[in-house]
Amino acid sequence: MSSFGKPNPTAIGxxxxxxxxxxxxxxxxxxxxxxxxEFFAAGGNVTGFQNGLAxxxxxxxxxxxxxxxxxxxxxxxxxxxYSVGWLVGWPVVTFLVxxxxxxxxxxxxxxxxxxxxxxxxxRVASAAGGLCVVSFYLIxxxxxxxxxxxxxxxLDYEVAVLAVGVVMLAYVLFGGMIATTWVQIVKAVLxxxxxxxxxxxxxxxxxxSPLRLFDAASVKYGPSVLAPGKLVSSPLEAISLGLALMFxxxxxxxxxxxxxxxxxxxxxxxSVFYATGFIGFFYLITFVLxxxxxxxxxxxxxxxxxxxxxxxxxxLAEAVGGTPFLGFISAVAFxxxxxxxxxxxxxxxxxxxxxxxxxxxxxxxxxxREQLRVARLATIALAIVAILxxxxxxxQNVAFMVGLAxxxxxxxxxxxxxxxxxxxxxxTRGAVASMxxxxxxxxxxxxxxxxxxxxxxxxPSAIIGLKNxxxxxxxxxxxxxxxxxxxxxxxxxxxxxxxxxxxxLLGK
Length: 508
Description:
The chain is mainly alpha-helical. The chain is built from 22 helices and no strands. It has one domain (about 10-505): Sodium/glucose cotransporter. α7 packs across α8, α9 packs across α12 (about 265-295) and α16 runs antiparallel to α18 (about 430-445). The chain is globular and about 65 Å long.
């Protein structure tokens, strides 16, 4: 008999232990967080290996652990498109973004885009796009957290979301990036370890052979479970989703922000190398978890417990390891959500405080105390937004919601970031036009798509049939940015390109 929906003493014990440890880290970090640099970038003192683990911790979100396992369990092979799409985005980050970002920027990706352009308009546009990405990403984490805590503590969903928001706020508000980094490192180790043990326990039932597991899935659900086409049936939809997952990684504010925590570009490259290894290994495990849940637990019980399928991995843990193992895995999932929400909130606070307040409102004239005060106020505001979004989007599959966040990141942030790095003729108007087009276009298309109109609002049909808009909005963002820059050239920005390029490559 399942223990879901009743208080789980083992899970509560692990939850309390994790919160005590991480609050201890936060207390330690708070004593070392005295400046804006320490609050937003850990003073640039994180090593490449540490940052690689923290990057993996930031990236392996509730969508990765809960959402993908649920999608694979319910849709079979098609659920893996998210794993593969997110993983292949990392070479883009390695070769195009990591080094220029570390050499040119300070706290946010807008530092790079605005480096040789006029500051206020670029920072306003980039902050708007970045905050939209953060908001959609937060939805997925808070929905996953609400479902998990509700089922394990027996709390109301809304109370569970509120509790997660309050705990996360403590990490960021007092410990800043130092606390967030170490919480993410602890979480990455727990998640990799817990998922590996769960996968081994699943494979042990099939003679340690993934092929036998896949055969069992095929016998139970038919050969189509191992074939593509159920979740993403349209080739256009598949290409659009793939573009979002690949290039959205290079536009995620909370991922890009991590490159400022290391001392130099070499450490930035090393951190991406380590992160890619950890993340690749983890996504291989999600294959086993998804198919294992489908075979051992069954699709009907998963769907009955949570219509988004987000509880497949915890249900699998209970099926193969009993209530104690369910408690451990659930605590790991909880740690996963808290760490990612902390990173997202910190990146949003950086956009509000560093980009908008310091550079737009105060024109660069704000002392350390004022910047820290504004950053902490922004953190509180974002925590409230995260809680409200988590309540409104109750019942959505978290991997799917993160896919939409990637679509906005690929459309709003990536085109402007790439053009500012590689194209001499890129201008302020081009950057603003590109970011506004990508942000507004992606949000409007998502709002009119089946995701919102059918899934959230309950309408019988949607105005736009495309669920993932990246193929349209990302292309538009590039075209608008290039055309605007050519129509309204900016000689001053072009003249500064040589110095910017030198600094991107050499760091000085």
